[in-house]
């Protein structure tokens, strides 16, 4: 009941065409034009082009379109010229069907009757053709594609691997995906969210691999969103999450079509948006957030090594400052004597306790990082100099912080950049401070209790029904092949059990390559 | 059932296992060694092993008669509503009492080895707070976290044992049965009290997905626990000799402090502290969950979260009242606990099982 109420409220708020939504267009050209005029008023980028069809029995008509969305070349050549060159109307009179079938050499043309649809399509940039005496009209797609060209994704770079990234144009994005998945199994379901923005959202998945329940669940969640407009994918993400209050996001986003394609092959679903180069991947688990697309381009030995490195960097970025505080404040006896001595000497001049020192450095690093993102690109050099010299070196020589602290903070910073998922790295940035406070109040004991609580939390959250820590907990041994290490491609015969239990086999087993036998025959198994 | 979670038999096994090992692996060896000396392995394997299997059998047979209910739910069905409710209430309080014992053990170690100036009350509140969060999230979450913890726990203990291997003096294991069978049997009573914690099965059985695998979890737990504690106890004896080991409060922690290899691997006692804290929180969460469910089913409410909070608060208070200082808690665990555990783990469920058998009471099966 509440949902229905909310829906109508938004509708009322939406323009003044509420009463017209369900009505059809009239056969009078004048009346139609008046209605459009009224509805789009003021709307100075709207153009009306009036003309007549046919020479002997001219029928008045007009085309209405929004100026900035129009590709003039195509409009002039394929619409106006085609319409104006019509000599004669057919014996049974002009009909929209005749116009579409015989006269308009355009790909995307459709007939419409309801005002709701007409207004919708015209606002989204289609041109509308109205002819006197007909109670339907024609919508013609003559978009000018204003989006930028495909370029390298800026947030997820790889050295070896595909360099194309999604753009702000949804059609181009699905095209990039189609380019990688040549199959009718690739399902693309279009939905619209936002009563005013009517943002196009495409749910993509591979039929036969994904669990059908998951698709219905996602569709339901998206359709249940009643909102005036969506401008950022983060908004949608927050509507879709399983654990809305959790500090950890259970939705992943990517800018890379190859990542999305790989996710679909594992039985996940993708949500592609109009107007943002980021598309969402659901469901996710922690292990998939530590994976990088490059892992699959590189040699598996190297990938496994890098993955282990990345896991330890992940833990470092979470715990390093907290451990430093705990050890220097409470548990000096844990350090080897030599190391302890050098830390004590370096801390001799520092007037603050460990926590203040660490907070000072961590905060200035976070501010530096935030400023680096906000600043115009030409200032980047300045910021790095300020950061390196003023905050690093000068703070140490002024005796504000100890050199050991600078080492810890830099280590943390570098580690936090090695987490491939931005949302995960950001959650860790916040949690790091909580751990620091716990360490300052209770030492290692505080860290361990907090870590236990965090583990309980991680075990409890789910992403579209998939436990966040799977396949680690609940454990699925066959899925561990692609977590801390990556086994060779010829050993990954099965899809993740949690995601694609109904279609597990990914490839034929026993495909380990072997050298040809020395006799020169075909490589037979010994 | 109040907790809708479902777990498989391995998860149940590990829950029952961590419900014991969380503390027993570190505190029990010296008690056993004090009584049995080099014959501790006989105490553990024979006495506590057999006792554990008997307790497991009783708990399993009782649970199988009432596969969809926890102990405190079917207790009134067997012995009548009023006495049943009273006994269930007492059972819930007993569970809280055991939990408070665990809590005081947990904070005592941290207090002694780690944070000498922090008042134990604060440590208690923090530990029980973390455990409450885990129990609040339900049995499935406990099971998942427990699995990860068990893996870490095993790796850490294994690492300590391997590193200390060169220091083991095999002469410490001799002589065998120097004073006859009596010390070995006496040592068994300490070890058994912990081994019998498999009785918690009567509070966790309904969550099991495949009921036919229950015996695997129950007996498996006892066997794995026997193996673990035998290895740890014998390592302690091997390193310190039975005389020195029996005087130490936390011998495993001492062993870890002892390790120093090439000045690179040393001070790994921190590893023991880590698994101690994590293990105690897990053990508390498991017991607290059982206590909260027991309280909730006794009261007949349909949400166990509030009773759980009550159980957590009562546990904290009990930890202060009954285990306020080291002497109190030491006295309890050496003199009272073995008999106390015996009556709660074996005698009480045993009598109830007998009654259920004689009165031919049976719960509804799952289908």
Total number of beta strands of chain A? 12
- Please tally the helical runs of chain B, counting DSSP H or I stretches of 4 or more residues: 13
Q: Please report which band the strand proportion of chain A falls in: under 5%, 5-15%, 15-25%, 25-35%, 35-45% or over 45%.
A: 5-15%
Q: Which protein chains are joined by the largest interface, and how many residues does each one contribute?
A: A-B, 26 and 32 residues
If strands are numbered along the chain, what order do they take across the biggest sheet of chain A?
1-2-4-5-3
User: How many distinct folded domains of chain A?
Assistant: 3
Through-space gap between termini of chain A = 71 Å
Count of helix runs of chain A = 16
Low-confidence stretches of chain B: none
CATH class of chain B: Mainly Alpha
* H-E order of chain A: HHEEHHEHEEHEEHHEHEEHHHHHHHEE
Describe the structure using short key phrases.
heterodimer, A: 526 residues, alpha+beta, 5-stranded antiparallel β-sheet, disordered N terminus, B: 367 residues, mainly alpha, Amino acid/polyamine transporter I
Notes on the protein architecture:
The complex is a heterodimer of chains A (526) and B (367). With 526 residues, chain A is α+β, with helices and mostly antiparallel strands. Chain A has three domains: 11-140, no CATH class; 170-284, no CATH class; 296-467, no CATH class. Helices cover 44% and strands 12% of the residues of chain A. Chain A has helices at 2-13, 29-39, 72-84, 96-103, 115-123, 170-180, 212-223, 233-240, 257-265, 286-290, 300-329, 337-347, 354-374, 380-397, 403-417, 422-460; strands spanning 46-53, 59-66, 109-112, 127-131, 137-140, 186-193, 199-206, 252-254, 269-273, 279-282, 462-463, 466-467. Chain A starts with a helix and ends in a 59-residue tail after the last strand. Chain B is globular and about 60 Å long. A two-stranded antiparallel sheet of chain B has the order 1-2. The model of chain B has no long low-confidence stretch (mean pLDDT 88). Chain B has helices at residues 9-36, 40-65, 71-79, 81-113, 120-137, 139-164, 182-195, 201-204, 214-247, 251-258, 269-299, 305-322, 326-358, and strands at 260-261, 265-266. By secondary structure, chain B is an all-alpha fold. In chain B, helix 1 (9-36) runs parallel beside helix 9 and helix 5 packs antiparallel against helix 12 (305-322). Chain B has a single domain (9-357), classed as Amino acid/polyamine transporter I, CATH 1.20.1740. At the A-B interface, helix 16 of A face helix 5, helix 6 and helix 11 of B.
């Amino acid at each position: 009941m509440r949902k229905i109420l909310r829906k109508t409220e938004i509708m009322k708020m939406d323009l003044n065409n509420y009463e017209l939504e369900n009505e059809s267009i009239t056969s009078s050209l004048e009346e139609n034009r008046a209605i459009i005029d009224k509805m789009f008023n003021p709307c100075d980028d709207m153009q009306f082009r009036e003309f007549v069809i046919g020479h002997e029995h001219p029928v008045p008509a007009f085309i209405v379109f929004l100026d900035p969305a129009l590709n003039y070349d195509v409009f002039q050549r394929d619409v106006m010229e085609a319409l104006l060159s019509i000599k004669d109307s057919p014996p049974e009179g002009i009909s929209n069907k005749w116009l579409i079938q015989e006269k308009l050499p355009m790909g995307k043309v459709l007939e419409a009757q309801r005002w709701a649809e007409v207004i919708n399509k015209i606002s989204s940039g289609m041109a509308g053709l109205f002819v006197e005496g007909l109670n339907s009209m024609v919508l013609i797609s003559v978009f000018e594609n204003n989006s930028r060209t495909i370029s390298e994704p800026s947030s997820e770079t790889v050295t070896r691997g595909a360099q194309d990234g999604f753009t702000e144009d949804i059609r181009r994005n699905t095209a990039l995906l189609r380019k990688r998945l040549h199959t009718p199994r690739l399902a693309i379901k279009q939905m619209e969210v936002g009563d005013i923005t009517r943002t196009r959202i495409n749910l993509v998945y591979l039929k036969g691999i994904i669990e059908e329940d998951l698709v219905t669940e996602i569709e339901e969640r998206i359709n249940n969103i009643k909102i005036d407009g969506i401008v950022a994918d983060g908004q949608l993400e927050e509507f879709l999450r399983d654990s809305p209050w959790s500090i950890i996001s259970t939705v992943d986003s990517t800018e890379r079509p190859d990542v999305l394609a790989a996710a679909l092959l594992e039985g996940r679903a993708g949500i592609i948006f109009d107007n943002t180069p980021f598309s969402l991947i659901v469901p996710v688990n922690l292990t998939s957030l530590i994976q990088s697309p490059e892992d699959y381009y590189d040699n598996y030995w190297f990938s496994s090594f890098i993955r282990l490195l990345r896991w330890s960097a992940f833990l470092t970025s979470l715990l390093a400052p907290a451990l430093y505080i705990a050890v220097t404040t409470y548990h000096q006896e844990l350090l080897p004597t030599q190391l302890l001595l050098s830390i004590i000497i370096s801390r001799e001049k520092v007037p603050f306790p460990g926590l203040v020192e660490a907070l000072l450095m961590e905060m200035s690093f976070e501010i530096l990082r935030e400023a680096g993102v906000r600043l115009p690109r030409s200032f980047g050099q300045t910021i790095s100099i300020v950061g390196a010299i003023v905050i690093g070196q000068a703070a140490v020589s002024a005796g504000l912080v100890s050199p050991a602290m600078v080492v810890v903070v830099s280590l943390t910073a570098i580690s936090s950049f090695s987490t491939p998922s931005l949302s995960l790295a950001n959650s860790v940035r916040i949690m790091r401070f909580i751990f620091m406070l716990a360490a300052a109040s209770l030492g290692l004991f505080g860290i361990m209790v907090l870590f236990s609580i965090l583990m309980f939390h991680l075990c409890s959250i789910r992403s579209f029904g998939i436990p966040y820590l799977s396949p680690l907990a609940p454990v699925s041994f066959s899925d561990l092949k692609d977590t801390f290490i990556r086994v060779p491609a010829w050993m990954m015969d099965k899809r993740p059990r949690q995601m694609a239990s109904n279609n597990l086999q990914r490839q034929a087993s026993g495909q380990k390559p072997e050298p040809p036998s020395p006799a020169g025959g075909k490589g037979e198994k010994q | 059932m109040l907790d809708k979670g479902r777990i498989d038999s391995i998860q149940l096994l590990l829950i029952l296992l961590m419900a014991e090992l969380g503390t027993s692996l570190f505190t029990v060896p010296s008690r056993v060694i004090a009584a049995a000396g080099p014959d501790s392995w006989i105490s553990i394997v024979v006495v506590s092993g057999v006792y554990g299997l008997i307790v497991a059998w009783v708990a399993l047979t009782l649970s199988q008669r009432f596969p969809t209910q926890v102990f405190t739910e079917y207790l009134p069905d067997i012995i009548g509503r009023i006495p049943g409710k009273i006994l269930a209430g007492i059972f819930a309080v007993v569970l809280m009492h055991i939990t408070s014992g665990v809590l005081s053990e947990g904070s005592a170690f941290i207090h002694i080895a780690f944070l000498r100036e922090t008042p134990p009350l604060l440590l208690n509140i923090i530990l029980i707070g973390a455990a409450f969060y885990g129990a609040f999230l339900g049995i499935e979450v406990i099971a998942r976290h427990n699995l990860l913890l068990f893996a870490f726990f095993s790796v850490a203990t294994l690492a300590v044992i391997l590193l200390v291997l060169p220091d083991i003096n095999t002469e410490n294991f001799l002589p065998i049965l120097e004073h006859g069978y009596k010390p070995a049997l006496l040592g068994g009573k300490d070890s058994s009290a912990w081994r019998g914690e498999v009785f918690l099965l009567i509070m966790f059985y309904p969550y099991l997905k495949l009921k036919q695998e229950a015996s695997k979890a129950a007996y498996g737990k006892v066997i794995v626990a026997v193996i673990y504690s035998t290895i740890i106890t014998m390592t302690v004896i091997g390193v310190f000799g039975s005389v020195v080991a029996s005087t130490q409060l936390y011998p495993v922690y001492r062993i870890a402090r002892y390790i120093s290899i090439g000045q690179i691997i040393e001070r790994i006692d921190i590893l023991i502290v880590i698994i101690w804290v994590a293990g105690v929180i897990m053990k508390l969460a498991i017991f607290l969950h059982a206590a909260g469910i027991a309280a909730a089913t006794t009261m007949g409410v349909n949400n166990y979260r509030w009773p759980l909070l009550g159980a957590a608060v009562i546990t904290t208070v009990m930890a202060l009242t009954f285990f306020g200082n080291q002497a109190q808690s030491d006295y309890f665990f050496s003199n009272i606990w073995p008999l106390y555990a015996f009556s709660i783990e074996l005698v009480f469920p045993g009598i109830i099982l007998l009654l259920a058998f004689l009165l031919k009471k049976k719960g509804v099966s799952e289908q």
